[in-house]
UniProtKB/TrEMBL annotation:
SUPFAM superfamilies membership: Prokaryotic ribosomal protein L17 (SSF64263)
Keywords: Ribonucleoprotein, Ribosomal protein
GO CC terms: cytosolic large ribosomal subunit
A GO term for molecular function: structural constituent of ribosome
GO biological process, one term: translation
Protein family: Belongs to the bacterial ribosomal protein bL17 family.
Designated name of the protein: 50S ribosomal protein L17
Length: 108
């Protein structure tokens, strides 16, 4: 399990923030390890957002603000007929400064 050089609280906050950005912008650029962690979390969020009811909205509000919840519900409706695989991670190559593997994660 990748710890990303952070404590558990910091890791969870990082993944939530990246997921929020991915839901709102539909495409973000980050390191490969962060992209893989974000992909796993975002897939679960979109799957939950398929059920547009009060309990789902309440659960999503635990993680995100209202704007992001609305976008997640919209994406849930877009992917209603899809069983999974809402995101794609594309490797971009190493970063010049430190050689970290860069990737783009986007919604399909």
């Amino acid at each position: 399990m990748a710890k990303l050089g952070r404590t558990k609280d910091q890791r969870e906050a990082l993944v939530k923030n990246q997921c929020r950005d991915l839901l709102l912008k539909e495409k973000i650029k980050t390191t490969l390890a962060k992209a893989k962690k974000t992909q796993k979390f975002c897939e679960k969020i979109v799957t939950k957002a398929k059920d547009d009811d009060q309990s789902t909205r309440r659960e999503l509000r635990r993680h995100f603000k209202q704007e992001t919840v609305e976008k997640a519900i919209e994406l849930g409706q877009r992917y209603r007929d899809r069983e999974g695989g809402y995101t794609r991670v594309l490797k971009m190559g190493p970063r010049r400064s430190d050689g970290a593997e860069i990737a783009v994660i986007e919604l399909v």
